[in-house]
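As a warm-up, study this chain.
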Amino acid sequence: MNWIYSFIILVAALFLIGFAFIAFIKPAPAKHFLRQFASSAQAHYSEQLIRIVFGLSLILYAPQMQFMNFHLALGWLIVITSLGLLGVPWRWHKKFADKVIPWVIRLLPVYAIGCLVLGGTLVNGLLG
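Now compare it with the structure written out below.
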């Protein structure tokens, strides 16, 4: 079962790294992707499901990872915030996203660097 958790973490890490490169090379698709957050009830619930699966994978696989405490805390943070978002109407999430996403898009290079660092940290944790 551990290989499934590590695979999920690796896919998420590669996604973050890939997103970072796309944001630097072709920012328009990255901006479009960010604008889709909480754009519908289906997007809202799909996002939370993906986050919960990723967060649980981090929690369950953290003992095998380098920087175990960081990955364990990150996993719990993701799961708890995702469960919280499941408890609010998606329209509230959309209102929040409508306020935050323009800031993220303005600071896209900084956000991309954060994605790159987090993705790299996840890969390093898996290899360590």
